[in-house]
Specification:
2 strands; 10% strand
């Protein structure tokens, strides 16, 4: 998810994840996501972006996002607007 393709002005892996979640929300009306082993995602802004996009897609319907982060670290609970 760290690769940026300047030719197409896109982050391919991030776009793939976003498109996949959009499909699940629109077609199957899922109401939440769980990110297992979120510690492996090195950039929290990626999770924040995905959560914001997903909540926009879901509209007024409540949408829940949960992450598992082991070992515990309070830094991950800071509100980043997602």
């Amino acid at each position: 998810y760290q690769h940026y393709d300047p030719k197409y002005d896109v982050w391919p892996a991030r776009k793939y994840v976003g498109d996949s979640i959009r499909y699940l929300v629109q077609e199957f009306h899922i109401d939440g996501l769980r990110f297992d082993s979120a510690k492996q995602i090195q950039h929290f802004e990626f999770l924040t972006t995905i959560v914001k996009q997903t909540k926009e897609i879901a509209g007024e319907k409540p949408f829940y996002c949960v992450s598992e982060y082991l070992p515990d670290d309070p830094i991950v609970t800071i509100d980043r607007g997602g």
